[in-house]
Structures are given as C-alpha cells and as structure tokens.
Write a structure and sequence with these properties.
Elements: E1 7-10, H1 20-34, H2 40-44, H3 51-59, H4 66-84, H5 96-105, E2 109-113, H6 119-126, E3 134-136, H7 149-158, E4 165-169, H8 172-181, E5 184-188, E6 198-200, H9 209-215
Parallel strand pairs: 1-2, 1-4, 2-3, 4-5, 5-6
Length: 218
C-alpha cells in the first residue's frame, strides 16, 4: 500500500548527478597509460559496479598482481577526484532538487545508496549532503551491487522494512540489487532497466512524488 512507503533511496551517479564522464576520463587515462584498449562502450559496462569490478572489466581477462591492481585503482581514483573538484551545485541533474524537497514535504525519509566511495564528497560539492537522512556508499558493505547488501544496510539505518522503500537507479546492477533486497524500484534513464517496477526515461524531472506513491498503491 502507498501508505506503507516510508523512504526513497537514490543511487548517485546518473540519478542525482552525472559523473559518468569523469569516470570515463579517469579510466581512459589509466588505460592509455597502461596500453589497454578502453572505449565509451566499455565504460557503459562499468555502470553501477564497484571499482574493483570495473578494473576487472577493463582488464578483459588480463592478469595482474594484486599489488598492481590496488595501485591502479588508487591512481584511477586520484584522477577521478581531480575531475570531481570541478563539481558545483549546478551539476545536480534536472528535477532533482524539486523532487527531493517534495519527498521530504510528503514525510518520506530520503537516502543515498551508491557504490561510489566518493559519494559524500560529491554530495557536499553539490550542496545537498544535509538533505539526506542516511548515506550508504562503497565504504559500508563488502558485497556491492548487484548484491542487495548496500540497500539493505540503508534500510536498516532508516529503520524501515525493505518493502517500505523505493529505490531509484539508472543501472541494471542497481535494479537487480534492489529487487533482490525486496525493494520497489524505479528505473531512471534509458539503460537496461526495463525490469524495474516503474521506468522514467527523463529521470527525476519526469516524475512526481505522488506519481511514484500512486504506482505502488496497487
């Protein structure tokens, strides 16, 4: 029932802001330095997964020592953080602020569930960190998306049952994680998210809080 929905949980990249280009530039820089092929199509396959899994996919089966893998991930993250330094509140995606404000006005709790270990820094640069009741990021659980652990952790911090939460995701791995955890799901954008309970190709700008609550009333 709609009156059972108590919280909205949002992925960060692709839902609240779009740092996909920064990730691409950072991975591309690393790949070029190491003589590895890495295209924008390859980058699309990294959407919603952890840094380690992203490296595995970039390597495409190439074996490297663990020490090297850790150094490469650190180097990529340093490149990414250089790009993050350019983020301002204007980098919130269209419709985000009105939607978050409407959710809070409706008495809903709101939270972040992101695989990014830089989520807090990004939210702070966007000027919206304090709007969220809980921040779940890549630092809080061992098993990342498509495992449901991150969203389940967030639900625990919000003191809700998983079927009282709606997860907003732009990636297949994120939708899969939310479904496995027993959450309601809204697919944002045009990626492979058609198995979500509800899809909004135009992001949060194409939704209202009441539309979402009404969808899960049945």
């Amino acid at each position: 029932m709609a009156d059972q929905i108590r919280a909205f949980i949002f992925d960060l990249d692709g839902v609240i802001t779009d740092t996909a280009e920064f990730h691409y530039l950072a991975w591309k820089r690393l790949a070029d330095e190491q003589g590895l092929s890495f295209t924008r199509e390859d980058n699309d396959q990294l959407r919603g997964v952890s840094r380690r899994e992203s490296l595995n996919r970039l390597l495409k089966g190439k074996a490297i020592h663990e020490e090297t893998a850790l150094a490469w991930m650190e180097r990529k993250n340093n490149y990414y953080r250089e790009y993050l330094a350019t983020i301002t509140p204007e980098h919130c995606l269209p419709g985000v602020l009105p939607f978050l404000n409407a959710a809070r006005a409706a008495g809903l709790k709101i939270a972040i569930g992101s695989a990014s270990k830089n989520a807090r820094d990004v939210l702070e640069r966007l000027g919206i960190l304090q709007m969220f009741d809980t921040i779940g990021d890549g630092n809080v659980v061992l098993n990342t998306k498509p495992a449901p652990d991150l969203f389940v952790w967030v639900a625990g911090r919000l003191d809700i049952y998983t079927n009282q939460g709606v997860v907003f995701e732009d990636a297949e791995a994120g939708i899969d994680a939310a479904l496995r955890g027993g959450f309601w799901t809204v697919g944002v954008g045009t990626a492979n998210i058609q198995h979500a309970h509800m899809v909004s190709p135009n992001g949060l700008a194409g939704l209202s809080v009441q539309q979402v609550l009404a969808r899960f009333k049945a």
